[in-house]
Amino acid sequence: MNSPSVVHVAGRTSGKAVASMVVAIIGALGASRLFGIPSFIAVLLGHLAMPETMSGAFAGRAMAITGVILGYLADIPWLIFTLVYALWAIS
Predict the structure, then answer these.
(1) Is 2 helix (H, G, I), strand (E, B) or coil?
(2) Bridge-partner residues for 59, per DSSP?
(3) Which residues lie across from 13 on neighbouring strands?
(4) What is residue 19's predicted lDDT score, i.e. its pLDDT?
(5) Could you tell me the CA-to-CA distances from 42 to 10, 24, 37, 47, 87 in Å, in that order?
(6) Which residues contact 47 (CB under 8 A, 6 or more apart)?
């Protein structure tokens, strides 16, 4: 007697989620040379990928979350630097 087998078919992965994670890694590794621009793009793409992955239309939610978190972590030093420089320039 044959037992039924279950085949798992992976869904399509969101391109925005993949791009968010890749750009976030690039931004985290080279943030000081690239002025935080890749990290900002990673956050934007990650937030755009969230609704796609939440609805189940695409896979890749973990990649979108990773891109957002890494993007924010790489952007925080640039925001602090900008604020300190702006306050120093005013005084």
Answers:
(1) coil
(2) 13
(3) 59
(4) 97
(5) 24, 5, 9, 8, 27
(6) 68
Does residue 36 come out as left (phi exceeding 0), alpha (psi in the -120 to 50 range) or beta?
left
Q: What CA–CA distance (Å, rounded) separates 45 from 16?
A: 6
Task: Tokens 């702006």: give the residue.
Answer: 86
- pLDDT 10s digits, 4-56: 776 555 579 999 999 999 999 998 887 667 778 899 999 999 999 999 999 88
Put simply, whether the predicted model's pTM sits higher than 0.85 gets the answer no
More confident residue, 34 or 75: 75
- Owner of token pair 């900002």: 40
- pLDDT for 33 equals 72
Long-range contacts of 5-10 (CB under 8 A, 24+ apart): 10/59
Give every CB contact of residue 42 below 8 A, 6+ residues apart in sequence: 20, 21, 23, 24, 27, 67, 68, 70, 71, 74
